[in-house]
Amino acid sequence: VLMSVLPALIEEGLFRGFVLRGMLRAYAPASAIAISSLLFAFAHPDPRYAVLLIPLSVWIGWVSWRTNSLVPAMWC
What are the DSSP calls for the chain, one per residue? Predict the structure, then answer.
């Protein structure tokens, strides 16, 4: 459980908590979500897997932005 839950919580805290929140201060929500989603996807080593993560990451970024909370994003 720790090997799957802990990395997910850390990734959400980093990409949605730190990166997305910081980018929302400087960019429009759509741009901030797109950029943070690309960074999230390509932080994963396998490029084929990274490309598949982009739509998921956009959706989770949107959820985080709309709810203004990391909790729903972490549940997703």
Answer: -HHHHHHHHHHIIIIIIIIIHHHHHHS-HHHHHHHHHHHHHHTSS-HHHHHHHHHHHHHHHHHHHHHT-SHHHHH-
